[in-house]
Amino acid sequence: METTLHSLYLGFSVALEPHNAWYAFLGCVVGTLVGVLPGVGPLAGISILLPVTFGLNATQAIIMLAGIYYGSQYGGSTTSILMRIPGEASSVMTCIDGYAMAQKGRAGSALCIAAVGSWIGGTFGVLVLTVVAPPLATIALRFGPPEYTALLVLGLIFLAYMSSSSLIRTLLMACLGLLLGMIGIDNMTGHFRYSFDLAELGDGIGIVPVAVGLFGLGEILSTPSADAVKTIISPKLRELLPTRKEWREASMPIGRGTLLGFFIGIIPGSAHIISSFLSYALEKRVSRRPEQFGKGAVAGVAGPETANNAASTGAFVPMLALGIPTSPITAVLIGALMLHGVQVGPTLVNEHPDVFWGFVASMYVGNVMLLALNLPLVSLFVWVLRIPYAYLYPLIIMFCIIGVYETNNSIVDVWIMLIMGILGYALRKFEFDPAPLVLGLVIAPILEQSLRQSLIMSNGNYFIFFNRPIAAGLMLVSAFLLALSGFSFLMKRKDWRDQLAEAEAGEPSA
Amino acid sequence: MTLRADHIAGAFFIAFGLLVIALSGDLPVGSLSFPGAGFMPHVLAVLTISFGIVLVARASESKPFATLSWADAKHAALVVLVTAAAAAVFEWLGFLTTDVLLIFALLVIIERKRLVPAAAYSIGLVVFTYVLFVYVLKTPLETGPLGF
User: Fold this and answer.
1) Contacts (Cβ under 8 Å, ≥6 apart) of B136
2) Which of A54, A166, A168 to mutate to test the interface with B (most CBs of B within 10 A)?
3) Which among A107, A110, A122 has a CA at the least distance from the CA of A246?
């Protein structure tokens, strides 16, 4: 514990350096804007702004990019509450009761509860991260290829089980992503795979063009400017304080959202999105007045907003301790650190303590900054929302091109982004969630390499995944989840996705 | 039988899986114990085809294809065309010229904005971004034949 406190002291001394604090602030402001603006999610936002960090050192870069990530979770609530437009996917549930509160003249309270909940969720997440990540990294040093293979398999199965779209759709998206991840030179044999004589494809398809295409350009293609009609409820500063009754109603959902969000955040998948959906369903189920949901229930704002922030912090645990991306966003963050010569994994905490602890401490600072920023500056963010979409999306396209091109100075990446934009548009039409595709793309090379290394280690014997305790444990959990999904599928039983859909539609759950 | 959205989606994934197998012809598959470069792609392609078949088989749960709205398709196609044109000339004309033309084209051709405000917005925005990246953030942007 003493070591942790000493390391945290080092972290704060790094995070509070004027330059680093400035980049945390910048990340928080940009992140809030990314969250506020419909059509620019945190993944596209971080990817687009990746080149901006090229002139910074690794600590500043990760502090700023992470600020964009958790800042976007705060900002996403603003548009949801004031316009009923989710600034980003994890704020969808906030639209329902947040906007209903705004229509009742309680927009300020809803914004305040969302901000305070986000702060509590985010800060709790960082506290647990501080305590858990270093010992977990020590355990992870014992991980070999079989453990990594088992962990990634578990991640994929968890992703399919927890995804908000259907199991088959999620698996198809993951397969598509894994297949895209096969493009490029095979590390084990040197064979070129599907590179069509393009030297740029030798290193494979990068996550940035895929993420920006699917989530940035794809969203723009799906949003004709004529449809982006906005009615904005603008709260006054003096209306921001909730009543005592509202605080009471928010307290338990914030507590539950914090715990739920953090633990879902650790699990692979689009945790910040799933956690807000599950938190809403949980609050509705435990509420004494479930009929209030959809009509301005405080718990319907407090729970999901807290959960998505706690989840976005929770996602940093496997990223920092194991070096494994559990979401497309943490994959981009790992990529950003690698661009700065920092290898993320169990050795990070010992080899780059300034980066690790500086980053952790900056999240404490960033969460306080966001709480201070979001409430007084809500009018400024509302003003940004008044920019007509017709003028806004050309700006986003320009940043998409800059972000994608500058990462590798490759025009092929811009073409890939364009193709992914068209794919993203089509996937939305056919109701596929593109997030598992990006995750599949990221983990494909790691999964394939660790599987083949494991088989070399065991002389081709698959029992290597079952006779090592950690790998066997992870495989057991995977088998249990698969059996659970298979049982629901065969028995045509409703799983949590169907029950949630019914809960949203106001139908009784079977 | 009504053609449904998942019939089309499933057929796409089946075709994609078959295409991957066709393109993987020269990759060594190896064996189950010692997988080669083509092993994972083959496994994934077979899984994609299998899941595609399940999607088609359960297509009755999806919307009829005819009910999908394509009202935004024209807008989307125009945005793609303009962006593709920008990508085609980006390395030749450089950031400043390409992006001024890109934003101007999006505003005038697609959004039907008036010429003068569109031109002012395009030039102002791109110059601001150029200054921000090149001079403030020290991130060089692609230059054109005139050196900017």
Assistant:
1) none
2) A168
3) A110
| Angle in degrees, 0-180, between the axes of helices B5-23 and B39-57, rounded to the nearest 10 | 160
HSE-up of residue A444 (Cα within 13 Å, Cβ side): 32
When scoring B23, B44, B131 by the number of chain A Cβ atoms within 10 A, the one with the most, hence best to mutate, is B44
Provide the whole-model pTM: 0.81
Whether A245 has a pLDDT exceeding 80, the answer reads yes
Chain A residues touching residue B32 (CB < 8 angstroms): 460
Pairing between strand A192-193 and A184-185?
antiparallel
ipTM above 0.90 for this complex: yes
Q: What is the pLDDT of residue A501?
A: 57
Handedness of CA A384, A385, A388, A393 (dihedral sign): positive
Furthest C-alpha separation in chain A: 70
In the predicted structure, residue A115 carries a pLDDT above the cut 60: yes
**Residues of chain B contacting residue A411, judged by C-beta atoms under 8 Å apart:** 87, 90-91
Question: Is-contact A76 A374, C-beta < 8 A?
Answer: no
- The predicted structure's pLDDT at residue A232: 64
Q: Is the pLDDT of residue B112 over 50?
A: yes
pLDDT of A140 higher than 80: no
Residue A38 to chain B, least CA–CA distance (Å): 17
* Chain B residues 62-81 with a CB less than 8 Å from chain A: 62, 68, 70-72, 75-76, 79-80
Nearest residue in A to B97, CA atom = A398
Which of B37, B48, B79 lies nearest to residue A175, judging by beta carbons?
B48
Tell me which residue in B23, B27, B129 faces A398 most closely, judged by beta carbons.
B129
SS3 assignment for chain B: CCCEHHHHHHHHHHHHHHHHHHHCCCCCCECCCCECCCHHHHHHHHHHHHHHHHHHHCHHHCCEHHHCCCCCHHHHHHHHHHHHHHHHHHHHHHHHHHHHHHHHHHHHHHCCCCHHHHHHHHHHHHHHHHHHHHHHCCCCCCCCCCCC
Helix (H) or strand (E) holding A155: helix A145-162
Residue A200, pLDDT > 80, answer yes
* Chain A from 457 to 496: CB within 8 A of any B CB: 459-462
* Distance in angstroms (rounded) separating the CA atoms of residues A208 and A400: 10
B111/A225 touch (CB, cutoff 8 Å), yes or no: yes
pLDDT digits (tens, 9 = 90+) for B6-61: 999 999 999 999 999 999 988 999 888 889 999 999 999 999 999 999 999 989 88
